[in-house]
Design a protein that fits this description.
Protein name: Phosphoribosyltransferase domain-containing protein
Keywords: Coiled coil, Glycosyltransferase, Transferase
Order of helices and strands: EHEHEEHEHEHEEHEH
GO biological process, one term: IMP salvage
Bound molecules: guanosine-5'-monophosphate
InterPro entries: PRTase-like, PRTase_dom
Radius of gyration: 18 Å
Distance between the termini: 22 Å
GO molecular function: hypoxanthine phosphoribosyltransferase activity
Strand order of the largest sheet: 4-3-2-5-6-7-9
Structural class: alpha/beta
Length: 238
């Protein structure tokens, strides 16, 4: 049974705040695309920290992608089992007006957690395709840049692949690197008081400090994989 770790709204808020200045200074996003449902709350919180004086709020668009199916219907916070296929439950309105508005933008894709990376791979690949189609249709040449922000990145072997600049951390930020635990987010809770109590006893632990060099992260990821191997624990692939 996979270990569960609980995170409170307060902690989510602070995780968004923690990397906001860096996101603003380096990515300079002018549009966010939140992956539903877990990306909605972080995107909204982040928007408050990305607001510049005198500038309008950064717009948030939503897409819905589903990879996981609940194993148990009677327990709302039961850990879930990964699926293999990404299903679109909601997508951008592909009318030319909306797609046109993606061209030449710095787009920040927001999700709550990068687990196997399958969902993020799908989102980036499909959004890049759509922008390319829109660019051809409108004969516009400005470059659209994609960036990623997640609250948690589970340090584990990933199934999904991202463009190189994302993989090496240049265009990808996670607020916290964690072990491969099942993270219980507050918006999934049926009883928020109990959830907050659980967060006191089974809170989430960072395994690296966000902001350390890519080299150190990959070294750390390597160590974590080895620990899993030595302990005879879960190791998906590689
Ligand atoms: P991935 O495609 O990276 O394996 O998973 C992405 C999606 O799976 C997330 O957006 C989220 O909906 C779900 N997911 C993966 N790991 C967790 C977790 O630890 N806790 C929760 N609540 N959802 C998770």
């Amino acid at each position: 049974m996979i270990k569960k770790a609980y995170i409170t709204y307060n902690e989510v808020h602070k995780l968004c705040q923690k990397r906001s200045k860096e996101i603003l200074d380096t990515f300079k996003p002018n549009l966010m695309i939140a992956i539903g449902g877990g990306g909605y709350v972080p995107a909204r919180i982040l928007r408050s920290f990305l607001k510049r004086d005198g500038a309008p709020n950064i717009p948030i668009q939503a897409i819905g992608l589903s990879l996981y199916e609940s194993l148990s219907s009677d327990s709302a916070d039961a850990a879930e089992e990964p699926g293999t296929k990404v299903t679109r439950t909601q997508w951008l309105d592909l009318s030319s007006l909306q797609m046109d508005s993606l061209i030449g933008k710095n787009i920040l894709i927001v999700d709550e957690v990068d687990d196997t990376r399958t969902t993020l791979e799908y989102a980036v690949r499909e959004l890049e395709k759509d922008v390319e189609t829109a660019r051809k249709q409108s004969a516009r040449t400005e470059k659209t840049n994609f960036y990623i922000f997640v609250l948690h990145n589970k340090v584990k072997p990933k199934k999904g692949r991202l463009p190189e600049d994302m993989e090496n951390g240049k265009t990808y930020i996670s607020a916290m690197e964690t072990e491969d635990v099942w993270i219980c987010y507050p918006w999934e809770a049926q009883n928020i008081d109990q959830h907050d109590k659980d967060a006191q006893t089974h809170g989430i632990r960072a395994i690296t400090t966000a902001g350390i060099s890519d080299r150190e992260v990959s070294k750390h990821s390597h160590n974590v994989k080895n620990e899993y191997n030595e302990g005879g624990g879960k190791l998906d692939e590689e």
